Amino acid sequence: MRESFDLNFGGIMKPKLRKRILLLLIASFMLAWVNGVVWAATPEPAKESPKPPLLTKPPESLPKGEKFIIRGREYCYECIDNSECLGCHTKISERKFAQSVHGANSCNSCHWDITDVKTHLKAKGGRIHTESVTCHRCHKKEGAEHYASAHFINDIQCKDCHTKIHELTPWKGDKTRVVGTCTLCHSDDGYAESVHGQSVAAGNPDSAACDDCHGLHKIPILKGDEPKVVQFRKEFHTEVCQKCHADREMMERNKVFLIATQTYYESYHGKVEHLGYPKLVAGCADCHGFHSILPKDNPKSLISDQRLAETCGKCHPGANVNFIQWLPHATHSDPEQEPVLYAVYIIMTTLLVSVFGVFWLHTFLWWRKDFWEKRELRAKGIFFPQHIRADEAGQIYRRFSTFDMVLHFTMMVTFIGLVLTGLPLKFSHAPWAGGLMHFLGGATLAGLIHRICAAITFAYFGTTITYIFYFLFFKKIQGNPNPLQRLFGPDSLSPRWKDVQDIIGTIRWFLNKGPKPQYDRWTYWEKFDFLAVFWGMFAIGLSGLMLWFPEFFTIFLPGWILNIAAIVHSDEALLASGFIFTVHFFNT
């Protein structure tokens, strides 16, 4: 039988204390019940009915010719004939109004608060109260765009641009009319003399007018020092140019440079902009200007020979005649336009393909041979290396000194740092590039990390050179060999004839034509890894310094050297990272 609940807790609680606890529990339940009843019986406070908003526009659908009342005021939509209005409003031409875009509408379509002409006439000489005309009642899309524009914030209304509203005719893509309207308030700012302004005046429908960049109604806010405005302004000044200049058909039709957009996004400026950090780099307008964009042969042009150093100097103080020889829109894929860059690109691509081809094949053949040998051993019941060399089981051979290990660890950390911060720029259009750059803290922080890792790389490279001199001339070695013997001895990382023999022997081993060679302390592929650092420091390091300090190097070098440096730095870095994370990892 089920036991009942025992309030005595096994007889240890005193009777008087037990009664007090029971009374306290009963009182608590009663108090809670009374409170609940009172709360349930209390009526909710009457909610205040929301006041109807002030009338800003009539209902979406209005019955024509019928009067209706909103908040005690009478309205009517198209219930008055135009002739009744134009009889008094003689300043409005009936002919021009009939020919305008609103000619099919009645006066009462816009002035829909005037419901009775007689009542309206009685107010003559007094104050005639009429509601302000709300254009967005019909022009909903334009109205919504206007509410989010710079014009709305500055209290620019429809009538300020559409001045003669009763004579307004269709604009039919007339760009000169747009420019004329905008310049009523905005200064010309050199637009009329620009390549765009001259082309618009000549009747070219492809050339950019005010609305092509700024829009007609949804005009973005470009003034202000707030970070978001500055960011948007930089994006705007580049993206609006892409709309036309990325249109191949339009550019061909107007015989304009076709690959401006493509080459921009292949440059450092374009890659950083594409990753989402436009305010850190130069955009189209920073070099070419905003409104007064002139051809290169015009001395007033920002990119003319006379002013280009000044233009570049805004971001690169000290830019000189050599600096401006840098090719901002150069392409390495066109041998006719840029034969030198094309040759460098072919050389670097050949190097990359040949190195990967040889060593990936070497890696595959090694894996294949190693796999089959282990398979044969397992078939014989041998599963561990100790079974092969039982006398050497458990022995540890230390190949690297503490100095070597510290140096190698430093190299690993800085190399990974360089790869992580460089990959987003190399593959800026990849879907993961922006996320990785954001994870690294943005382009500014990633650039700082890249340069710190590069500086440390130069430091340990210098340390390695110092150690080589110490090894050749000062280190105590058994037998006291001379520097030449040390350089080509078994403990050296310099190539020697034994490495050639090992390469031939390894190939024979791959092809089952001979035994596996007995390698020296350092194998031929380890020596290749080591010596590749010297080539890498020359190629990646020197080109990286040129890109880091372009103003300094262009004191004595032409600017197009920077274009070569960008190709070499990018492709050699890809070769180094790809080799380390595939071949080197397999070998170790």
Tally of strands: 2
Structural class: mainly alpha
Oligomeric form: single chain
The whole-angstrom Rg is: 41 Å
Strand content: under 5%
* Overall tally of structural domains: 4
How are the strands of the biggest sheet laid out side by side?
Answer: 1-2
Poorly predicted regions are 1-12, 37-60
Task: Report the total helices.
Answer: 27
Q: Quick check: average pLDDT?
A: 83
Q: What pattern of helices and strands is seen along the backbone? A: HEEHHHHHHHHHHHHHHHHHHHHHHHHHH
End-to-end CA span: 74 Å
User: Can you give the helix content as a percent range?
Assistant: 40-55%
Shape label: elongated
- Which sheet architecture does the biggest sheet show? 2 strands, antiparallel
